[in-house]
# Entry
Amino acid sequence: MERRDFAGLLLSVATGGMLTPVIANSKVSNQFLVDSPLEDKGMPAALPDNIKQLIKNVLKLEYKNVNTDWDGTIQVEGLLRFAKRGYKDGLDYASNWFNYHVENDGKMTDEEYYKQYDGPHARILRDGPLTFVLYSANLGVSFPVHELYNINKSKIARQVCIDVADAILHYAGRDRFGMLAHDDYNYINFAIPDTAYWATRANAIAASLSKPDVAEVYWKQSIYQLSQGIKYFFDSDKNLVRTGLFKGEKGTTYWCRSQGWLIWAISGLLRYLPQSHPYFKEAAATMKLIADSAVKYQTKSGAFHVLVNDPSSPEEVTGMAMVLASVKEGMRKGWLPKNYDGFCNKGWEYIKQSVDAQGILHNVYTGWAVPAEEKKVNLMDQNFRGFAVGIIIVAADEMTR
# Structure
């Protein structure tokens, strides 16, 4: 696809004093921060020093090297969660990150773009202000961008959110169950719950930014993707989330992050869907079933096992942290009853124990769904990637509110 001429969009943003693309490594203008309603309060006092250091370690990364795939976007979203609470450094970093990618990613060749991330080389879309790829994990770029939009009302940020949802609606592949394909080449080999998260939340965000008649299209897609995800990934007999579907057949394992992916998908809808919507209670009911099983399978240490119902597999931090973040938010917003504090507090203790004084995270399963289904459970703290740190930052935000 040809890249649209969006000079008018950039001009309208610049004249409003909002987010404007800048050259690589330049700083966000003071004008942007003056216009922001956020007061600089630093990080919350309730954050332990080791978690503060983990967050500071993200700020040490060159933002041009923090990609728009899952490894980068969840870290930036974590920073923006604290930015909304007054962490100015997090806002500065996220704004520079977004500006850099808007300005530079469209100038890359396909080969240069693919070098930024570890996932499949799916189609690259170049027709909007931000260039992105149809590998499903890259579609989560709209999540931190929407958080930026909530702060600064940037027209560019809003357009990116719409572009991602439109890509899911019109360009991305589907498997035979109608669910978002993992990438351009994986329609049959496997389907995994993280694709439900990308598709559900991205379309819910677009619905929240649109007029009612257009929003209805995005709501329909968001709800469909989540309902199919629940139908095929959630085992209602065990109340656990399957690792995935493999060659169209239900998986036989229950991976720790699968629990997190599906409950995050539910949160990714409920966060935006009006509570009066008829699907709201149905989605919240499934969230409660996942939360109840999380309590049942949480270890004495506060972790999940890599395979949650297999105590011979290692204890792991990220899957539990994902569930914890959604459960805590669910209690805070009234989606869940307020009786999961014990689960959350035990999980928070395990998270804190999993980060050393230098802010380095441990106890992470660094494999993914396919090796988990193959019961390769000992891939701990290998080939470490940014998504794990981002998950911890999101959980830390919820636990210090």
About this structure: Confidence is low (pLDDT under 50) at residues 1-35. The CA atoms of residues 327 and 340 lie 7 Å apart. The first helix runs from residue 7 to 15. Strands lie at 124-125, 132-133, 190-191, 234-235, 240-241, 245-246, 249-250, 304-305, 315-316.
